[in-house]
Amino acid sequence: MNSVKSIAESPDLNHIPSIYAYSVNSTEPPASDTQDEIPTVDFSLLTSADPDLRSKTIQELDMACKDWGFFRVINHGVPEALMHMVIEKSAEFFDLREDEKKEFEEKGVLDPIRYGTSFNSKKDEILYWRDFLKVIIHPDFHYPNKPSGFREVLMEYSKRTREVVKGLLSGISTSLGLDQSYVQKALKLESGLQIFAANLYPPCPQPELAMGLPPHSDHGLLTLLINNGVGGLQIKHKGKWVNVNNDLPNSFLVNIADQLQIFSNGKYKSVEHRAIVNNVVTRLSVAVANGPSLDVVVEPAYKLVTEERCVPGYIPMKYKEYLEMQQSNKIVGKTCLDRVRYEK
Length: 344
Fold this sequence. Notes:
By secondary structure, the protein is of the alpha+beta class. The chain has one domain (69-339): B-lactam Antibiotic, Isopenicillin N Synthase, Chain (Jelly Rolls, Sandwich), CATH 2.60.120. The chain is built from 11 helices and 14 strands. It has helices at residues 4-8, 43-46, 51-67, 80-94, 98-101, 150-175, 182-186, 258-263, 302-307, 319-327, 335-339; strands at 40-42, 70-74, 113-117, 131-138, 194-201, 213-216, 222-227, 233-237, 240-244, 252-256, 273-275, 283-290, 297-298, 317-318. The strands form 3 sheets. It has an 8-stranded mixed beta sheet. A hairpin with a 2-residue loop joins β8 and β9. It starts with a helix and ends in a 5-residue tail after the last helix.
């Protein structure tokens, strides 16, 4: 399978190959730009020793999770230089020769290092204008042996982002009315799965016909995203697509993923999002997906169900099985989550 990068760099490329022609649902409204409305969470206040500041920020986090399933995080403690270096090293990887990258070509969804194109090129009927590198960086740390220096950057970034996720999930646990360590213990976050994913979206000669990634939700708990300053992310909010640019310096874009929707029994919902492309400049994004331990059976929190006297909305399923189900099939909205819902 040819990489999108190699296709985009073909001389005299004026049209995309027909296999990349994606049909957008004509009934959907065009994306709007409501940048100012997207919630922002100050991590330094969320982890503050001042109980009043922490309590107020937890309330803000709760509203962000309920109303959007998506928010920005500022003052998180991850050095800006490290965030820039992650983007830089990811770009260097994609700039390697094709034969060097093929060493990491994907075979299975839980391969420690996977390089590929589209989403699941073996199953996708229409291919997506995207190349990717996915690396499992926790509980076991893996890394590509090129480019030089990638290992050190990945290891530091893995540690730093796990601390951010730990703080966010502590706040989310409290906002759900649980002990602040409840989520961490119930889902065995000390051995939780953490996947580094670099996504490359080269310039596309017909961006109106192609799609970087179609509408989908993520399989884990929380995903942290940064990019190279080029827009292209859209999230679904109240039935409409919203353009999102991470134009707030040194901030993360964070979205709720499927396991948190299941664990919260639907109180917090995973956000559907997609990636669009342009015909001018390459977009590069780096996502860190954070999930439970692979062997954990995820279900609505027992305390939430019993204390609120409500019916569990989701069938218990081992996280590893859910991840394999989502990653091994075509990606279509939140269809995987629909498979584990109890029918009313």
